[in-house]
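Customer escalation, tier 2.

The customer says the design service returned an amino acid string that "doesn't look like it belongs to this structure." They asked us to rerun it and document both sides in this ticket. The original structure tokens are below, unchanged.
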């Protein structure tokens, strides 16, 4: 392990390897925790809207409890190392965007990861405000069977074809 920190070890165990991307997410999660005074999100108090779907998102899942299944992790693909965090309770929100890292073409992957891990989080990221509002809470829909395949489908994904409810895939056939 590059650093002997129990949170980093948890992230690496979940992600599968140590890499600069995971280190970015790890640092972003710790800085968000500090700035929002937020802990692990047992329900969905902390919402993360990530602007990339890269390695760093895994560290945010592990450290902040934001996950796709709970509906408090969303990907808003913009190709940027930027993460938006919203705290439902306090209403506080921040956007962390990675500053350009010093470029050293001869640095290995683990050297780059170690640089990020040892850097002070507030020197790595610029702290801004999200440019959009907090997404609504995870919604629960009623589900009904598709009249063609019979598979139970959540209502927003059913459409009416010839007066019958049909799932998206059957409607496309
Ligand atoms: Zn990775
Ligand atoms: Zn169907």
């Amino acid at each position: 392990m590059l650093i002997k920190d129990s949170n980093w070890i948890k992230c690496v165990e979940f992600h599968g390897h140590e890499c600069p991307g995971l280190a970015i997410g790890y640092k972003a999660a710790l800085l968000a925790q500090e700035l929002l005074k937020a802990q692990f999100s047992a329900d969905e108090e902390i919402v993360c809207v990530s602007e990339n779907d890269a390695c760093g998102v895994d560290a945010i899942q592990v450290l902040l409890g934001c996950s796709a299944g709970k509906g408090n992790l969303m990907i808003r693909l913009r190709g940027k190392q930027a993460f938006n965090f919203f705290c439902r309770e306090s209403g506080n929100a921040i956007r962390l965007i990675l500053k350009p890292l010093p470029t050293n073409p001869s640095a290995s992957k683990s050297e780059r990861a170690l640089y990020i891990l040892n850097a002070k989080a507030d020197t790595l990221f610029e702290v801004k405000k999200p440019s959009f509002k907090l997404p609504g809470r995870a919604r629960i829909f009623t589900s009904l069977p598709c009249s063609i395949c019979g598979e139970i489908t959540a209502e927003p994904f059913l459409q009416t074809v010839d007066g019958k409810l049909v799932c998206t895939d059957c409607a496309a056939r």
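Tier 2 assessment: The sequence is consistent with the input. Helices lie at 6-15, 20-36, 56-64, 109-118, 121-124, 168-172. The pocket of zinc ion (ligand 2) is lined by residues 146, 148-149, 151, 166-167, 169-170 (CB under 6 Å). Sent an explanation to the customer and offered a walkthrough call.
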